[in-house]
Amino acid sequence: MLAAASAHESEPAPAPEPPSPLERLREAYGLTDREVQMAGYLAQGRTRAFIAGELYLSENTVKRHITTLYQKVGVHSKQDLIDLLQQQ
């Protein structure tokens, strides 16, 4: 029985999944869950109105989250954010 256990121990552990571009962005810039969520929607080309409807938030709240996200990562537009995510 001991031989079976030591043979099993010699198998390499499976490699962990690499983090997604959104997770790498979170780690690099210290984003909150909500900011990562906004980045995901924006990367899909969604509008503030769409995001607000999906999350049951006002458009002003969504705008505030997006503004904070842009400031943290140093971009000025949705396209800049998408470009940054593609570099991650």
Description:
The chain has six helices and no strands. With 88 residues, the chain is an all-alpha fold. The chain is elongated and about 55 Å long. The relative contact order is 0.14.
Tell me the number of strands: 0
* Span between termini: 46 Å
Cα-based radius of gyration, to the nearest Å: 19 Å
Integer average pLDDT:
90
**Order of helices and strands, N to C?**
HHHHHH
Q: Poorly predicted ranges (pLDDT <50, ≥5 residues)?
A: none
Which band does the percent of strand residues land in? Answer: under 5%
Main beta sheet:
none
Helix percentage: 55-70%
Number of helices: 6
Structural category:
mainly alpha
Overall 3D form? elongated
Brief write-up:
By secondary structure, the chain is mostly helical. The chain is built from six helices and no strands. It has helices spanning 2-9, 21-29, 33-43, 48-55, 59-73, 78-87.
Defining key terms:
single chain, 88 residues, mainly alpha, 69% helix, 0% strand
